[in-house]
Amino acid sequence: MHGYELRKRLNLMLGWRSLLSYGSLYPALKKMLRAGWIEEHTVLSGATSRRPRIVYEPTDAGRAEFVRLMSEAGPSAWEDDNFDIRFAFFSSTDMEIRLRVLEGRRMRLQERLERVQGQLSLTQKEMDRYAAELQRHGVEQVEREVHWLSELIQAERAGTTAPQQPPGAKA
After folding, report:
1. What domain range is 169 assigned to?
2. Are 58 and 29 in contact, with CB atoms under 8 Å apart?
């Protein structure tokens, strides 16, 4: 795919939480080119443009690196910066690895939740109402994600798919 199409598809996969900018995409593509994980080809586009397009394609080494990365289940897999992209490609991941990543993410969020809730009562007296609302909103987001992860883990263990709710529905 060319860069524009790649960005569009990744943003569609990742959803609104993790929009990928061109400022992140092209340096990442250049890094993957240097590592030999992708190749670039110049193709003439159709009648819509006179400019040739650069199209990126994974190499055998790039496919092997993808498999290696998707088999990792340690802390980097469940951290904020990596979890969404890992989750987007879960269909390419072994069930045991999916479970470890989901459980690790849930554990990390539960630790964060306990820490924030412990500080919440101490700091709410010192905050104005908007700062307190922002903190409450953050707690609710983490609680919802922990609940979602618990449902996914349960469904994964049962070999089923997690129940789907319409966007914005409360669990």
Report:
1. 77-171
2. no
